[in-house]
Amino acid sequence: MSSLAKATMLESIQDDCAEELKVTFHPPLFLQRRIWALDILRAENVTKLLDIGCGEGQLLSVLCQPAPWLAPPPRHILPAPTEAPNTSGLIPSSPAYNDEIPNIHTTHIMGLDICASDLEFAVQGCAPPQADVNLNEGSDMYASYFTNVDLRWEDLEAKLWKGGLEAINEEFVNVECIVSTEVIEHLPPHIFPAFAPMLLGVYHPRLFLVTTPPYTFNARFTAPDAPPTARRGYPDPTKRTDRVFRHSDHKFEWTADEFKDWCDSAAREWGYDVQVSTVGRASEVDEWGRDAELGGATSVAVFTRRDFEGREEKGRATLQVLELRTEPHELLANHKHTAHEDSEKPKPLAEIGLHVKAKMEDLREGFMRVEDLWFERDIAVMCGGWIEMLVRAVEDCEFLDLKRDGKEMKGKRANWVVELVGGITEPKNLWPAERGTDHIPFHWIPGDEQPESSEDDWGGSTDMEGDVSWNDSEGEDDMEGPADSIGWSHAGWGTGPEWEEVKATGHTGWAEESQGDISDAPTTGDISTGGWDGDESDDTT
């Protein structure tokens, strides 16, 4: 190879190294952090939470969404069944509904931030829904499967405060859980020493969740032998290091080891146990094999309180020594979300069972998933918000059969199906008397299957409803398209050879439908680092 060719090749290699590598996250990094926090809140059954540095309220607005049903009822409301249902043994008998993904039942949430413009969005996002749509039972406006939109079973109070971390807010003391995501690295040097004494000392929550971007992961954005010019970002504004940060407002970025050292030290000093890890692996495989070494793009830690005498007094004393100038927090909003008046006031099981039977007959449905029935508003209200009441009512009703242990059910409660025993026995009056016979199509022959009609003519659920996965539960099946595409016609249920096959096998044809791969959906995470943090904006890290 000539000298010119070698020089050209070397220059090409250097140009490649000088470019920042493409690094994307799926789901987007900010969502992965939020999912991590929500998973812990579910597992720990957190009901009262404070978000320090809540920003625009992305986490708080999620927690304001009502759970679709209450936690399982106490035994005095729904005693254990006298005879256990015939199951495979892997599924608990009612009253447990066997949630694969437990709901979060928050009753008090609070947020604190110093940015007034961000808090305007948080105040709006945590406000109760506007009563500008008629969602009452029997409303024609929402004549569909899913008419319990924004139906709330538990009271919720949401408070938003404006102010700095350094000021003590007595309402935050002994809160159950504090979350601080991508905040600590933004603290000015004179405020940072108050972080642990305030949160772990004065407020001393049962759980403390904290995240921060690790400097260690930044190497993932360039080749190992890349020149310094290849690293886009923001030089350390404090001049203490020569590190290049992901965001212009970062006062520091710890390596993974530095973060762990800080967590261990804070846990020892304030009486906590701590678990440290990372989230946010890049979608692309690093060609130099550094993925395991560099870890995830976000460092995370879970602090769990243990017995420790005098931590609150110690925290207050430490803050006094710091002599920080403080101003009281300003309460910007105190939102009250009120539970439905019939919450925890269920009707008798027999009445619920008969209502379910009537509903299925009215909808011309021989089979319905439990969750589809639940999202009929009147049924949920009759159950007082306890889905276990619906399950038990179905189990006890002689006209209904609960299928939850068949091969096609796959043991998942999202696939539990209610069968109307005997199928549809009474023909539905497709043309009400007040409309007369003028509305009957000229080609219709009595005894034939239903003619083509609009949703209003049908008066119930049709495949015009679209995707029935309103409640976004894992394992739900996609039922879009004509009824015949899943092997059934509304008018044919209860008769014919297909019905005999279902009675013999219990197979509905639903469990083999594909919900699709979430990876096909476009996301904001399918971009490069975007401000060096892989987040949805440069302002939110």
TrEMBL record:
Residues 449-458 have a biased composition (Acidic residues). One of its GO terms (cellular component) is nucleus. The keyword Repeat does not apply. It comes from the Eukaryota. It catalyses: small RNA 3'-end nucleotide + S-adenosyl-L-methionine = small RNA 3'-end 2'-O-methylnucleotide + S-adenosyl-L-homocysteine + H(+). Residues 446-541 are annotated as: Disordered. This is Small RNA 2'-O-methyltransferase. It is an enzyme of class 2 (transferase). SUPFAM superfamilies: S-adenosyl-L-methionine-dependent methyltransferases. GO terms for biological process: RNA methylation; siRNA processing. Its cofactor is Mg(2+). Keywords: Magnesium, Metal-binding, Methyltransferase, RNA-binding, RNA-mediated gene silencing, S-adenosyl-L-methionine, Transferase. Belongs to the methyltransferase superfamily. HEN1 family. Its EC number is 2.1.1.386.
